[in-house]
What we know:
Elements: H1 4-13, E1 17-22, E2 25-30, E3 33-38, E4 44-48, H2 51-60, E5 65-66, E6 76-80, H3 86-100, H4 103-108, H5 111-115
Antiparallel strand pairs: 1-2, 2-3, 3-4, 4-6, 5-6
Amino acid sequence: MNTVESVRTLALSLPEVEERDHWGKPSFRVRNKIFATIQEDGTSLILKTTQEDRMVYTEMDPTIFSVPSKYSNLNYMVVRMDLIDQLELRGLLIKGWSLVAPKSLVKNLDVKSYLEQES
């Protein structure tokens, strides 16, 4: 099961990621660019994505993926950590990271090793 700690562990294991407060919530950043923020409920994660992926995921399973109106013009979606498959969440976190990380970091990342990490 995905927990705040398992998300934190994976996020912080990615290159150059720092955890910082964002309006009272933990956020994960690469060079000050946010790719994930854990919400106060401890089960929801705001995650950087592409507009296309956001549309696919929210239509595929709106119980797990949603877009609050305040994010309608931004490429972020809410992911229910308690309902999503662990491997899928890992993949989405890595993709969110890759959308904000410098291309040189993304190019050198061994995605397979991050997907296989222990929870």
